[in-house]
Amino acid sequence: MSAVGHDLSHDHGHDHEHHHKDTFITKYIFSIDHKMIAKQYLITGLLMGIIGVGMSLLFRMQIAWPEESFGIFKFFLGEKMAPGGVMKNDAYLALVTIHGTIMVFFVLTAGLSGTFSNLLIPLQIGARDMASGFMNMISYWLFFISTIIMLCSLFVESGPASAGWTIYPPLSALPQAIPGSGTGMTLWLISMAIFIASSLMGSLNYVVTVINLRTKGMSMTRLPLTIWTFFVTAIIGIVSFPVLLSAALLLIFDRSFGTSFFMSDIYIAGEVLHYQGGSPVLFEHLFWFLGHPEVYIVILPAMGIVSEILTTNSRKPIFGYRAMIASVLAIAFLSTIVWGHHMFISGMNPFLGSVFTFTTLLIAIPSAVKAFNWITTLWKGNLQMNPGMLFSIGMVSTFITGGLTGIILGDSTLDINVHDTYFVIAHFHLVMGISALYGFFAGVYHWFPKMFGRMMDKNLGYIHFWVTAVCAYGVFFPMHFIGMAGLPRRYYTNTAFPLFDDLADVNVLITVFALVGAAFQVVFFWNFFYSIFYGKKATQNPWRSNTLEWTTPVEHMHGNWPGEIPHVHRWAYDYSKPGHDEDFVPQIVPYKDGEEQLHH
């Protein structure tokens, strides 16, 4: 099969060069070239990131200075949601909901999987393109449509969805429950259904491409770790996304067609509603069966990117290559049997809670394997401290600090005390938000020359890293303490509770760090967009890296390689190998006589 696929893709590449010129529309808009689709995902993800972070700044200001009047609230939210510039509680809930949705699905999932799986899978396995370029294009445009619908939901009369990004019923199932349960909620569900279709098409494409289109000599044990993580991420997506789709569809039925999957015996303002027989906890099970694998769908690509960048910039082989692959596979398997740890206080059977505690603590082991292997890769390396490397090391740091608190939250008895407090927010923002974002930034700095043929400015990259690193910890480190003090999440003000008065200053501190950190992302955006047009021209292999993507010409062409696709003779991590003149040996270099073949 792979040989046939190989020949087909080879011929296709040549036909494409001879027969027709691309127009603007086929080249930049409805492109079937994986490199262009990767850029489309990247730019869309960045724009959604601006919106998602902007929302978090608005609600952070509300938490720090509750009931204050801000002109910026009136400007962005309008008179209805912020009368006289004072944010209403409905507006606060809506911002929290849409911020979570945008960041998890439209920024991290698309920014990492959409961008880097598309860019790197064909380039690093030696393929002309994805298995199906057309399906790849459709998956991007479905993603784009879903982002537009999600943004439209912000402007409907009844207000955007406000049931939290987890949209638990009955809040999300009863249009009359809160203002944001009307049309905004329906649009949220439609947007999510389209997003899931997009993700599934992308994932199927990635899996088929990795299995069928590897170049000659590229065995599974010679694949870079980036490809392993993208491959396994796609498999997790195929397994878990359909479950969320079913939950969303059943919720649409409950909302619009009078069914009762997720609702039983409900009273609103003394009126008995006719629902019976459903269970809101059933929705929680369906949601978290995707929701937990989703955090690994977000973090695994970041792990692969970081593994690649750390070993390239340490100038030494990755430590424990096979253990890294095993840990990725273990994480993938375990990620599907830990969802119940989000539901310890939903009235779950305590015995079932203990089972989920066990599997949750178990998943710490492969995660720790990865962390130790990264540290050992850095140990005594010849470290090249470019911005991509700094963000990769930062990711290892936040992954460890964020992961430690997961051991507390994963234990059903300890979780009772901090469940639904800021402690949870601190944990998952560090471990999947900031860590994934660092992986994303590292990937952008590292593969920018491959995408755009130019280099980003190093000094601006350093400024971006250090301010972001200080501010990220400045925001999420104090949250652990206010969480342990019992401050609940999702409250738009805590002024009604005198016992939380002492924590008000901490919230102001957190907000100041958030505002400064967000302001300095302007440095990154300037660097990014300026460098696309005016950056220093890139050489073919600026980081002196071993993987196949650096053997392609700097100028893009559909088909990636002019002439033959190179063959692979070794794994991707022969750095500083004795007996070679250079400190890197690309995968296309055959073994010399007498050179040991350690990995086969």
UniProtKB/TrEMBL annotation:
SUPFAM superfamilies per record: Cytochrome c oxidase subunit I-like
Species: Flavobacterium suncheonense GH29-5 = DSM 17707
Gene Ontology annotations for the cellular component aspect, listed alphabetically: membrane
The protein's name: Cytochrome C oxidase
Membrane topology: Multi-pass membrane protein
Primary subcellular site in the record, as a coarse category: membrane
Transmembrane segment boundaries: 41-59, 91-121, 133-156, 187-213, 225-253, 286-307, 319-339, 351-369, 390-410, 422-448, 460-486, 506-529
Transport among keywords: yes
Places the protein is found: Membrane
GO biological process: aerobic respiration; electron transport coupled proton transport; respiratory electron transport chain
Keywords from the named record: Electron transport, Heme, Iron, Membrane, Metal-binding, Respiratory chain, Transmembrane, Transmembrane helix, Transport
Domain annotation Cytochrome oxidase subunit I profile: ranges: 24-589
Family per similarity comment: Belongs to the heme-copper respiratory oxidase family.
Superkingdom classification of source: Bacteria
GO molecular function: cytochrome-c oxidase activity; heme binding
